[in-house]
From TrEMBL:
Name of protein: PQ loop repeat protein
Coiled-coil positions: none
Entry membrane topology: Multi-pass membrane protein
Pfam families: PQ-loop
UniProt keyword list: Membrane, Transmembrane, Transmembrane helix
UniProt KW Lipid biosynthesis keyword: no
Organism: Candidatus Methanofastidiosum methylothiophilum
Locations listed in the record: Membrane
Length: 84
């Protein structure tokens, strides 16, 4: 594996895992009052664009990181809507 791809995969892992604590806390506490809907909505839009960019560039680290990140962000947004 190329060094550049390895760096990309490590970066993808770290940035994707960074949202896990919020997802776990939100699921556990069923509390979303302190979570900004619009911040997470804008983040989701940005991640969708990065995901599309990764597909167009055929860049595996970008596709993986943003596909998983989008899934996690959508969980938080769904819980935010559910637990207003």
């Amino acid at each position: 594996m190329e060094l550049v791809t390895s760096i990309g995969l490590i970066a993808a892992f770290l940035t994707t895992v960074s949202s896990l604590p919020q997802v776990i806390k939100t699921i556990r506490l069923k509390e979303t009052r302190d979570i900004s809907f619009w911040m997470w909505a804008f983040l989701a839009c940005g991640i969708i664009l990065w995901f599309i960019y990764g597909i167009l560039k055929n860049d595996l680290p970008i596709i993986l990181a943003n596909g998983i990140s989008l899934f996690l962000v959508l969980i938080v947004l769904g819980l935010k809507i559910r637990y207003k």
